[in-house]
Write the structure tokens for this entry.
Amino acid sequence: MDEPRDYQLISTSPATTPGPVKKELALPDPGATPFKVVVDPEMRLKLRRALIELIDYHDEALAEHFSEGKLDLESYKEYIELFARSLKETMESREGVAYLLRAVGFEVPADQINLNPVLRWKKGAPGAFGSSLL
């Protein structure tokens, strides 16, 4: 017996589908509230790639500023602190979040980006470390 699914297969032949036939999957609405949330592994992979590119960009920019004599560093500790600050400032900005959204295929207007999303833990399943995700 087949298991129930959250989707339905339909014919996409020209006789049953008005207009042009699309051959790719439509992206879901990034602001939609589905009943069942499953994080797409492909989307997670794209997000990881975007984060790695962002990390590389910040690393190269800091190294360039240092090599050009624009940035004074006293230790590796200070470099790491500045690197973390640079990433934090980017991720706290609408531009940084928009970059990640675009990297996974979403175009969201900057004024619709929530920079302070609230963690809503389910009853009986509080976050492991209080109000933080980690």
About this structure: Residues 41-67 form the longest helix (27 residues). The CA atoms of residues 55 and 134 lie 20 Å apart. The two ends are 41 Å apart (CA to CA).
